[in-house]
C-alpha cells in the first residue's frame, strides 16, 4: 500500500506542475518562455534534489509513454516526400555537415580528457528537439510558408537521423543486433501501413471503425494508442530503439489517417499534450542532476555553445542561396534547440558507464538552456519582421 501511496503522491505533484505551467503563462503573458521550460523547472522543484515531493521512478512508466507520444507526433508531422524536395535535401546536407563538425570537435575534447563517451556526445551535438518545438513553432505561426517548409525539414532530419544513429551505434551491444532491430522496425512499419487496405476490403470492419471513432468509443484514437504501445513494446529491449519505434509509429499513422488526419490530429493533441507529454517533461526535470551542474558550470557553458555552433553554422551556410539572413538565423536557432534526445543519451551513457556524470548533467542542462533561449529568439525575430506593404497602397502610389 505504501508503494501505491507513493505513486499517487508523486503523480499528484507532477499533475499540479502540469496544470500550473500553462496557467502561469496565461496569467503572465509577458513571461515569454516555452511551456516546456516551466515543466522542467517544476520537475526540478518537486524532484529529489528540490522539495522531494515526488519520486521519478514512481511515474517513469507514464513518462515513457509521454516520450513515445513526443516522437509519435514528430513522426506524424513529417511529410514522407521530404527527401524529394529541396528543403529535405538541404536539411540532410546541413545535418551531415553538423555530424562532421561534431566528430572533429568531440575528438579534440576526448584528446584533452574532457569527454569520455565519444559517440554519445557527438550524436548529442547533432540533435534537434523537433517534437518539443512543434507546439512552440505552431503557436507562433512559424510553420507556414517557405520558411515553415525549411524549419519542418531541418527539425525532422535533426531528429530522425540522430535516432537512427543512436539505434545503430548505442542501441545494442552487438552491431548486427542493432541492424536487425532497425530492419524489424521497418518491416513492422510496412506491415502496419497495409492495415487500412485490409480493413477497406473487410467492409463491415471498416464501417464499425468509421461509426465508432467519435463519442464514447473513440476507436480510432484507441487504435492509435495501441499502435504506439505495440511499437514501444516490440522495441523495449533498448530504450532508444523504443524512441525509433514511436517515431515510425507516427509516420505510419500519417498514412493511416488519410482524409481524417485533421480530426485525428486534434484528438492526439488532446491526449498527448493534455497529459502524457507534460508528464514526461516534468519527469525529465526531476531526473536532472543539479549538483553536478553547480559543481561544473563551465561544462554547461561549453556544451551550450557547442550545440549552437555545431547545428547553427551549417544552417547559415547551406541555406545561403534560398533564404534571407533573418530566415537563416531562425533556422539555425530552431535546429540548434535540443533536449529529449539529450536526456535519453545521458541516461544511456550513465547506464553503460561510458559517460561522465558531470558531462551527462551538463548536456541536459545545455539542452534546457537552448529550449529556454533559442526558440524565444526565433519567435522574436518572426514577430519583428516588417509587415508587407498593402497592395492598394502600392497601387495608389503609382
TrEMBL record:
Membrane protein topology class: Multi-pass membrane protein
Transmembrane segments: 6-25, 62-79, 91-111, 117-137, 149-170, 176-199, 270-288, 300-319, 331-350, 362-381
Record-linked Pfam families: Na_H_Exchanger
Domain Cation/H+ exchanger transmembrane: 16-378
Subcellular location: Membrane
Keyword terms of this UniProt record: Antiport, Ion transport, Membrane, Transmembrane, Transmembrane helix, Transport
First-listed, main subcellular location of the protein, grouped into a coarse class: membrane
Domain of life: Bacteria
Gene3D superfamilies: 1.20.1530.20
Family statement drawn from the similarity comment of this UniProt entry: Belongs to the monovalent cation:proton antiporter 2 (CPA2) transporter (TC 2.A.37) family.
PANTHER family membership: NA(+)_H(+) ANTIPORTER YJBQ-RELATED, NAPA-TYPE SODIUM/HYDROGEN ANTIPORTER
Name this protein carries in UniProt: Cation:proton antiporter
Organism: Pseudonocardia humida
Amino acid at each position: 500500500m505504501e508503494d501505491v501511496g507513493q505513486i499517487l503522491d508523486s503523480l499528484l505533484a507532477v499533475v499540479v506542475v502540469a496544470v500550473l505551467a500553462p496557467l502561469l503563462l496565461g496569467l503572465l503573458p509577458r513571461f515569454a518562455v516555452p511551456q516546456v521550460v516551466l515543466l522542467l523547472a517544476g520537475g526540478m522543484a518537486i524532484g529529489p534534489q528540490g522539495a522531494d515531493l515526488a519520486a521519478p521512478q514512481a511515474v517513469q512508466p507514464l513518462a515513457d509513454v509521454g516520450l513515445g507520444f513526443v516522437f509519435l507526433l514528430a513522426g506524424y508531422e513529417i511529410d514522407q516526400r521530404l527527401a524529394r524536395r529541396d528543403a529535405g535535401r538541404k536539411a540532410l546536407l546541413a545535418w551531415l555537415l553538423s555530424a562532421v563538425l561534431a566528430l572533429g570537435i568531440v575528438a579534440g575534447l576526448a584528446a584533452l580528457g574532457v569527454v569520455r563517451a565519444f559517440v554519445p556526445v557527438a550524436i548529442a551535438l547533432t540533435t534537434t528537439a523537433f517534437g518539443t518545438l512543434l507546439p512552440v513553432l505552431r503557436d507562433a505561426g512559424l510553420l507556414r510558408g517557405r520558411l515553415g517548409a525549411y524549419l519542418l525539414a531541418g527539425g525532422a532530419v535533426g531528429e530522425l537521423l540522430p535516432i537512427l544513429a543512436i539505434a545503430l551505434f548505442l542501441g545494442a551491444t552487438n552491431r548486427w543486433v542493432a541492424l536487425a532491430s532497425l530492419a524489424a522496425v521497418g518491416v513492422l512499419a510496412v506491415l502496419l501501413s497495409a492495415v487500412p487496405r485490409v480493413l477497406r476490403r473487410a467492409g463491415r470492419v471498416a464501417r464499425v471503425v468509421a461509426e465508432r471513432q467519435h463519442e464514447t468509443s473513440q476507436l480510432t484514437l484507441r487504435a492509435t494508442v495501441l499502435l504506439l504501445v505495440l511499437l514501444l513494446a516490440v522495441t523495449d529491449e533498448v530504450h532508444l530503439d523504443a524512441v525509433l519505434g514511436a517515431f515510425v509509429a507516427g509516420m505510419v499513422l500519417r498514412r493511416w489517417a488519410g482524409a481524417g488526419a485533421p480530426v485525428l490530429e486534434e484528438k492526439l493533441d488532446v491526449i498527448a499534450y493534455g497529459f502524457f507529454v507534460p508528464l514526461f517533461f516534468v519527469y525529465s526535470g526531476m531526473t536532472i542532476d543539479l549538483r553536478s551542474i553547480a559543481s561544473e558550470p563551465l561544462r554547461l557553458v561549453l556544451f551550450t555553445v557547442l550545440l549552437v555552433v555545431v547545428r547553427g553554422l551549417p544552417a547559415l551556410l547551406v541555406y545561403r542561396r534560398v533564404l534571407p539572413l533573418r530566415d537563416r538565423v531562425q533556422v539555425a536557432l530552431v535546429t540548434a534547440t535540443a533536449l529529449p534526445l539529450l536526456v535519453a543519451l545521458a541516461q544511456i551513457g550513465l547506464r553503460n558507464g561510458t559517460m561522465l556524470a558531470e558531462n551527462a548533467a551538463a548536456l541536459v542542462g545545455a539542452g534546457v538552456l537552448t529550449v529556454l533561449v533559442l526558440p524565444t529568439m526565433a519567435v522574436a525575430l518572426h514577430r519583428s519582421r516588417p509587415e508587407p506593404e498593402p497592395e492598394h497602397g502600392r497601387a495608389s502610389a503609382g
